């Protein structure tokens, strides 16, 4: 099944979005609360945390939390991971009637427990199986199916044992309606520098849209990634952690407008409060307070006394304590 045969195409979807700047599927971060905040600040498309096709098949309770979506979020892409075509077909069909605009197949997760199961970036080592998974999902999805891959599995991938352009082309032929390339190998995890050349190679090899990913921490990074690779869209991952404002900056830069000033401490505090309230609404006060610890370490970066603030937030056990600490930031 070719990409052009699938229900709709990602290229058509891309033409309807406010910008080509997307929030990545971030493990432990890309829940409904964070997606909503990034959407407020300009993220044109948001991805869920990765969802297990097998978990969906067996009715894992964790699946419902990942699939939760609130009004006001940007269009949503659900990211699936798995390595069994039958399971991928079932999962894609199960998601067909949900309000997501596409399904993405994870071929980039580097985590050992995922890779050991032949899933995530392990699929880079088995192009035939990867193509079967794409084809199986595309047959039942009823909407565009895309692939998120890494440049290679090992650091010797490009030009040696693995050709990202050839792999991406094979995924396109199997039914992928777009390809996202993270310019790092699986062995790199998130260290070192992303090799944007691999994104350019894929862009030159396929006819479907290509999304570039890796080392986008500013508006200039995003525009440079597009200039150097020719990619059709940019996915922001770690650059959005604690900084949802990056999407508005990217959008302004693309339009040739003045980039908005960085947020004042008061605006950061109000965003943290909103983030907490959304998490508490979804998961309860106990879980929200504990999850805000990781978010606060990013939001408070660069603020005066950030280290002390993080220490105090990590010890907060009630909403009152948490809000009092945020009030202290405003009083500085």
Describe the protein's topology.
Elements: H1 10-14, E1 21-23, H2 32-40, E2 45-47, E3 51-52, H3 53-57, H4 61-67, E4 76-81, H5 85-94, E5 102-107, H6 112-115, H7 127-141, E6 145-152, H8 164-174, E7 179-185, H9 197-205, E8 210-213, H10 219-229, E9 233-236, H11 246-254, H12 265-283, H13 285-299, H14 306-315, H15 319-331
Parallel strand pairs: 1-2, 1-9, 2-4, 3-4, 4-5, 5-6, 6-7, 7-8, 8-9
Helix pairs in contact: 2-12, 5-7, 7-8, 8-9, 10-11, 12-13, 12-15, 13-14
Features:
332 residues, alpha/beta, TIM Barrel, Non-ribosomal Peptide Synthetase Peptidyl Carrier Protein, Chain A, 2 domains, eight-stranded parallel beta barrel, 15 helices, 46% helix
Structure description:
With 332 residues, the chain is an alpha/beta fold. The chain folds into two domains: 3-254, Aldolase class I (TIM Barrel), CATH 3.20.20; 265-331, Putative flavin oxidoreducatase, domain 2 (Non-ribosomal Peptide Synthetase Peptidyl Carrier Protein, Chain A, Orthogonal Bundle), CATH 1.10.1200. Helix content is 46%, strand content 13%. It contains 15 helices and nine strands. It has an eight-stranded parallel β-barrel, surrounded by seven helices. Helix 10 (219-229) links the parallel strand 8 and strand 9 (233-236). Helix 7 (127-141) runs parallel beside helix 8 (164-174). The longest helix has 19 residues, at 265-283. The model has no long low-confidence stretch (mean pLDDT 92).
Distance between the termini: 60 Å
- Summed over residues and divided by their number, the pLDDT gives a mean of 92
Assembly type: single chain
| Count of individual domains | 2
β-sheet strand percentage: 5-15%
Structural class per helix/strand content?
Answer: alpha/beta
- Kindly state the percentage of residues in helix: 40-55%
